[in-house]
Amino acid sequence: MKNVKKIVAIAIIGIITVAFSGCNMIEKTQAGINNTVVASVNGEKITVGEVEARMKGTENQLKQQYGSNYASNSTAADQLKQAKTQMLEEMVTEDLLLQKAKTLKLVPSDSAINAEVKKQYDSLRSQDQYKKDSDWKAALTQNGFTEEALKAQMRNSVIIAKVTDYMTKNVSVTDKQIQDYYNSNQLKYTEQPNTIDIAHILVKTEAEAKDIKAQLDKGADFASLAKQKSTDTTSGAAGGELGTYNQANDDQSKQLDATFMTAALALKVGQISAPVQTQYGWHIIKCVDRKDYPVKKLDDVKAQVKDTLLSQAKQDAYQKTLDKWKKAADIKEEADKLS
């Protein structure tokens, strides 16, 4: 339930809520800009200044990546604009959930909230990188926090956690669902991760792919054809070699097109596929090597499967309820006012 965790998780990620008092300064002054309303949730306003205050961590990351003049870099500027728009959406969601906590009488007692905030704060403060007071204060400053603001955000997270629990309280998983998921996802439950080493030749048209396959069937060298014909010049220069991948294809940092992987997994070592079409073009795929391990028994992984399904079901229930609440709420957003 990654999105739910993202809302309730507390870490030094540059989140701080700053309230700006009203003033008579004109719109063109910085104070006036900060007080510009960019969203409202049932009448509760969110200003430019509040969004900007939450962007400190992101701005520091961009500064490290692009330098102190990152704002003049078009790529960095686009990333910052997208991050601000996303932050505004998250702030709208947070405000709505905090409102719902009051409406549904889900707000814990002050003593309960304070106890949980202390627990979260002490856990964060005790981490090795923050043992020195100077390191702790530097981390707070770098991410736009004060002690008070951090604890205030932790307080909100405690309340929001109660709301998300309410939103997902009726979620359950049946034994049949567990069995079906296990049967359909056995590559995720092998004794060791199954791997496959793949090479390919990528071309633009099916006719080209068929011609290359015909040459291979007659004994042509795969690596030589990859170097000559593949439009994927990086792998082509290596004879078509793409490297070794997890057969479950669940590594987000190294994930292949699903259609491509399905075709690759159908191959034995040394075998070459018929032409396969993906969003990138037409592929001829070769299985260079693969490692296949036994699948664990369901009884050994049942708890793990159940946790996976519960997490998915809770995320679905959360999103369905959130969409319903947002539709019923009076929400206005003007992200175009964010600079």
From TrEMBL:
It comes from the Bacteria. Keywords: Cell membrane, Isomerase, Lipoprotein, Membrane, Palmitate, Rotamase, Signal. It is an enzyme of class 5 (isomerase). It catalyses: [protein]-peptidylproline (omega=180) = [protein]-peptidylproline (omega=0). InterPro entries: Foldase_PrsA (IPR023059), PPIase_dom_sf (IPR046357), PPIase_PpiC (IPR000297), PPIase_PpiC_CS (IPR023058), PrsA_foldase (IPR050245), Trigger_fact/SurA_dom_sf (IPR027304). SUPFAM superfamilies: FKBP-like, Triger factor/SurA peptide-binding domain-like. One of its GO terms (cellular component) is plasma membrane. Plays a major role in protein secretion by helping the post-translocational extracellular folding of several secreted proteins. PANTHER family: FOLDASE PROTEIN PRSA, PEPTIDYLPROLYL ISOMERASE. This is Foldase protein PrsA. It comes from Clostridium acidisoli DSM 12555. The lineage of its organism: Bacteria, Bacillati, Bacillota, Clostridia, Eubacteriales. The gene is prsA.
